[in-house]
Amino acid sequence: MQNGGWVYALIPALNKLYKTKEDRAAAYKRHLVFFNTHPYLASPIIGVTLALEEDRANGAPVDDVAIQGVKVGMMGPLAGVGDPVFWYTVRPLLGGLGATLALSGNVLGPILFWVLWNIIRWAFMWYTQEFGYRAGSRITDDLSGGLLKTVTRGASMMGMFVLAALIERWVSIKFTPVVSKVTLSKGAYIDWGKLPSGTKGIREALTE
């Protein structure tokens, strides 16, 4: 699903780590297997993978199974973190802020949303990729305990709260109950809108 983009992101580093054509081809093939996670949470996995590939290129006993195991072990849990944090919390918050300004006629609404969103996601991807590279394979130990579960649960709750607040703010429902409908034939009722004004109208109503 994302293996093409994954390999494309790794190619510059793999070309520096492996000098022969055979080693590079083997590295490309090693990463052309199934990979799928949240697009922004792929950054720490890239960092960890680069650290493992560097260790392998320097002669450390890191095989294909170890590299694939780290990737598979991280991509599922991190995908579960990325959705509630980015799609259900950060983006709705910034979108609500920008929409509020835009509805008031302020042109800064969409500009502010675009700038803040890109600063946050770019900064996150840069920092987490560097963090993953420095931590290497130890990052899997850091995220395998209760921290990952706590972050996911908290972000999900915050995302639900934000969505509820946005619904209350932006969604309006008009509900007019109709108790019953009775169709009357012409002449069975008084059409008050067509009666003349004054005493003439009262007289005609009483007559009808």
Itemize the secondary structure elements and their pairings.
Layout: H1 3-17, H2 21-30, H3 42-57, H4 64-103, H5 108-135, H6 139-143, H7 146-170, H8 198-207
**Can you give the helix content as a percent range?**
over 70%
Structural class: mainly alpha
Mean pLDDT: 84
Model regions low in confidence, pLDDT < 50 over at least 5 residues: none
User: Beta-strand percentage?
Assistant: under 5%
Shape descriptor: rod-shaped
Instruction: State the major sheet.
Output: none
Any idea what the radius of gyration is? 31 Å
Tally the beta strands.
0
Our count of helices gives: 8
What is the domain total for the residues? 1
Kindly, what is the distance between the CA atoms of the first and last residues, rounded to a whole number of angstroms?
77 Å
Provide the succession of SSEs.
HHHHHHHH
Relevant terms:
about 210 residues; mainly alpha; single chain
Quick recap of the structure?
The protein has 208 residues and is mostly helical. The chain contains eight helices and no strands. The protein has one domain.
